[in-house]
From TrEMBL:
Species, as recorded: Anaerotignum neopropionicum
InterPro entries according to UniProt: COMT-like, COMT_C, COMT_dimerisation, SAM-dependent_MTases_sf, WH-like_DNA-bd_sf, WH_DNA-bd_sf
UniProt GO BP: methylation
UniProt name for this protein: Multifunctional cyclase-dehydratase-3-O-methyl transferase TcmN
Domain O-methyltransferase dimerisation stretches: 19-89
Length: 340
């Protein structure tokens, strides 16, 4: 059948915004029901319903919707996962990001704010400057949220990036600054039998990191240090320091934080910072500009412009900085690698 349109093709962008919450609800329904775990091989809807004890006709309707969303394939009445789903939405996959998606969906902050009121009246009395790791408190149960988010694909993509550094095999001691529950750090350590690590975070988050270390039987190689990295010692003699989304909370004291990191490194040590870097007059990448809205509208400005971190690295003694923008599971991120 010939396809024609009487609508400006560009209006699809607006329509997609309306459909997005529907797609999201449909996806999370399928994940909660564990549908994808049943569909590595083609099955009839009746087989899926019987296996999972679901209503047959409603199961068929949901499977059709998921097929329309291009998450499933349907051939001769049999449904099966697309390669995308098998890689990222099967829990047994090393790239599984189901928990990551759940955390981001539940923790956006948009449901808790009155955007119209904030834009009309401005931030309320809570809008005071917060610095360092104490700023995490505005996100609620940060530690448990991050532990869920760091599992699977998120930890793997960063550990692969770190283990790909030319100096990696020579590392003996690393610091994960603001490392949260520590699953990313632990994944890195697993790639290097001689590497020991310190996870630095607040006391509350540090307790969760200690649990993660025990769960992975890495007590002999990884320990936790707690405090506020802007005020307290972060240790010394590191070969590698990693900071993922950490320097956002030192935005107004960036030189202080970067100099402290520089001083804590051994000669020829490496510092990798992963954060968003706003471009196009602070309008891109859209994922970061939009996702930060609940915080910035309340007066908590943690956004970093592209180049702010790398410039601070060079100002504070690093001999060179390699800058790149990488498409990651959290969107386009700036990865700045500085060498002492």
């Amino acid at each position: 059948m010939t396809h024609c349109s009487h609508v400006d093709a560009s209006v699809k962008k607006l329509l997609d915004m309306i459909y997005a919450p529907m797609y999201t609800k449909t996806l999370f329904t399928a994940m909660e029901l564990e549908l994808f775990s049943e569909l590595e091989e083609g099955k009839l809807f009746t087989e899926v319903a019987e296996r999972l004890m679901l209503h047959p006709e409603n199961t068929r309707l949901l499977l059709n919707a998921l097929t329309g969303m291009e998450l499933l394939e349907k051939n001769e009445a049999r449904y099966r996962n697309t390669p995308l789903v098998n890689k990222y939405l099967l829990r047994k996959s090393e790239w599984f990001i189901g928990d990551h998606l759940r955390v981001y969906n539940a923790g956006t902050g948009f449901d808790e704010i009155d955007m119209v009121k904030l834009i009309k009246e401005g931030p309320g009395s809570e809008a005071k400057e917060k610095e360092g790791l104490e700023a995490y408190s505005i996100f609620g149960d940060w530690a448990e949220m991050m532990k869920t988010q760091q599992r699977g694909g998120r930890a793997k993509e960063i550990s692969d990036m770190v283990s790909g550094l030319p100096e990696f095999k020579g590392f003996r001691k690393m610091l994960d600054l603001g490392g949260g529950p520590g699953l990313i750090c632990l994944e890195i350590v697993k790639h290097h039998p001689e590497l020991k690590a310190i996870i630095f975070d607040t006391a509350e988050v540090g307790r969760v990191a200690e649990e993660s270390i025990k769960e992975n039987n890495l007590e002999s190689r990884v320990e936790v240090m707690t405090g506020d990295y802007l005020k307290d010692s972060i240790g010394e003699c590191y070969d590698f320091i990693l900071a993922i989304g950490t320097l956002n909370f030192a935005k107004h004291n960036l030189d202080l934080a970067v100099k402290k990191i520089y001083d804590a490194l051994n000669p020829h040590g490496v510092f990798m910072c992963i954060s968003e870097g706003l471009t196009h007059e602070e309008t891109r990448p859209k994922e970061m500009v939009v996702s930060w809205l609940p915080s910035v509208l309340r007066g908590f400005d943690f956004q970093l412009k592209q180049g702010e971190v790398s410039d601070a690295m060079l100002r504070n003694g690093f001999r060179n900085v390699f800058k790149q923008t990488v498409s990651m599971l959290t969107g386009d991120m700036d990865v700045d690698i500085a060498r002492k």
